[in-house]
Design goal:
about 325 residues, mainly alpha, about 0% strand
Length: about 325
């Protein structure tokens, strides 16, 4: 298991460096905005560019980037957006909002997805199962920003149940702030609910028709007892790692939804950095989202070994 973990971490680091290096080279091929356009801030921006080696050959710039940015945390300052503000400090300031909206989303979407999947499996081939399966296909197929538009129009504008935009401030765990997060949570969570419900139904249906479930029933267990004691536990083995990786993975999907509902997170910052051509913010956020995606995959893979004892036995 240790050898497997080390191998996966090494591959993750390799993929991360390849993606980061490609983005770095492509960004450096683009022309820099002349510092004269920044007016009174020109001297500050020019000094930070000098520190990051903007006037040096590309290979030297790359070495400085690895040493000062990836390892040292110096990502420069904002140029076309958040001008002269430290990029890393701005990122750290905005990260809590992104984490909170994703945390809230997972708290409601994971139990709801599991319950719908379990209910559909227990009502297999009945109208309840058909209804849930049809809804799952619809919600999985439609992008989250379409939900965001519909939710904002009906719940916030038409029916006036929630604010159109998330409240400003950093009191993320107050009741008013939580209520303002609800439309964004629904938009982000519908896809997660549908995915978990579909996966849970498929796993539980397969377990319920297995031979050992028939044996449990012949030994005197009722259908409910056999389902809770045996079917539920075994079907959760492949589902639990999916839940663990979902929280990390969903952060990458909240970029557009955060912009839609005015959440002051890192998602809007990423979109703005692309539009404004602020390369320092773009590089930091590209590295962040790349790391999130890779880390999500490795968390899922490694958690299988801890959840399913058969995998650990197979390793031995």
């Amino acid at each position: 298991m240790i050898k497997y973990v080390i191998k996966r971490l090494a591959l993750m680091l390799l993929v991360f460096m390849v993606i980061t290096s490609v983005c770095f080279v492509l960004v450096k091929l683009l022309p820099n905005i002349p510092t004269q356009q920044f007016g009174k801030d020109a001297a500050i921006i020019e000094a930070r560019r000098e520190a990051l080696g903007y006037n040096k050959p590309l290979i030297e710039q790359y070495i400085i980037f690895i040493r000062r940015s990836l390892l040292g945390g110096d990502w420069g300052v904002g140029e076309t957006m958040e001008r002269t503000r430290d990029v890393l400090a701005t990122f750290a300031e905005r990260l809590p909002a992104t984490m909170v909206v994703n945390l809230y989303t997972m708290i409601f979407s994971v139990p709801l997805g599991l319950l719908l999947g379990i209910y559909a499996a227990l009502k297999k081939n009945k109208w309840q199962d058909h209804f849930i399966s049809t809804a799952v296909v619809v919600f999985v197929s439609v992008p989250s920003y379409v939900y965001a538009f519909l939710i904002q129009y009906f719940l916030s504008f038409k029916w006036n149940l929630f604010p159109l935009q998330v409240l400003k401030g950093t009191d993320y765990f107050s009741l008013d702030m939580f209520v303002s997060f609800i439309p964004a949570m629904i938009a982000l969570g519908l896809g997660t609910v549908a995915g978990l419900a579909r996966y849970t139904r498929a796993e539980l249906c397969e377990v319920l028709t297995s031979d050992y479930m028939l044996l449990a029933r012949t030994k005197g267990l009722s259908r409910g007892q056999a389902t809770v004691m045996h079917a539920m536990r075994n079907s959760m083995v492949p589902i639990f790692p999916m839940i663990m990786g979902e929280f990390i993975g969903i952060i990458g999907g909240s970029v557009i939804v955060e912009q839609f509902f005015g959440i002051a997170g890192v998602g809007p910052l990423y979109l703005q950095s692309i539009i404004a051509k602020d390369y320092n913010f773009f590089m930091l956020l590209t590295c962040f989202y790349t790391a999130i995606g890779l880390f999500s995959g490795i968390i899922v893979d490694l958690s299988y070994g801890f959840v399913d004892p058969r995998i650990r036995i197979g390793e031995k």
